[in-house]
Amino acid sequence: MVKDSIDTFKSYPIGQYSIDLTNSAYANFVKPTFPYLEKPASYAKPYVAKADEIGDNILSIVDEKVPILKSETKDIQQQIFDYANWPLKTAGEQKDYVLNTYNNEYNKCGGDGVVAGGKALVSGSFVITSEWLHYFSTLLQRKKEEAKDTAQDVQKTVEEKTDN
Asked: How many CA atoms lie within 13 A of 75 on its CB side?
């Protein structure tokens, strides 16, 4: 991500000019003073090393907590794009699901017209409702089993503590 930012900065004439200006200022003003700053720099060297170590530790923690920063810029852009478009994608999928269910029920009703459309609407809503109820029942069943396991673990822990 940083490399791509620097490459973009270098690709513009103003960015390239500012880099050239900075390099020439360094070569003309800073580099000649190095011999005079060696002795004072030797006093600060252990403190700078410690600050560098602390900074490195902080960057390691940031990399650990926010792993996306290590990714390529294109991957980050794609992931942000996917997150931004998730609601639209999900809404489109649900719309397609409802329309497909209605069309299937309309074809099962075996006719054209208002009556077949009404039957398809009612039976389609029953199909969708039954599928959602099945989904929620399996979800609740799974959570019930997890709660039961947790309760048994807590009960064992309490029994162990009371025995000791």
From this structure: 7
For residues 80 and 3, which has the higher predicted lDDT (pLDDT)? 80
Express each pLDDT in 125-140 by its tens digit.
999 999 999 999 999 9
Which amino acid type is present at position 122?
V
Judge if pTM exceeds 0.90. Answer: no
Instruction: Give the ranges where 66-113 is alpha helix by DSSP (H).
Output: 73-109
CB 148 within 8 A of CB 163: no
**Alpha helices (H) in the chain, listed in sequence order:** 2-11, 13-25, 34-65, 73-109, 114-163
Q: Position of tokens 């390691």? A: 60
Phi, psi of 110 (to 5 degrees): 70, 50
8 Cβ contact list (under 8 Å, min separation 6): 15
Q: What band does 1 get if pLDDT is binned at 50, 70 and 90?
A: low
Query: Residue 114 and residue 111: Cα distance in Å, rounded?
Result: 9
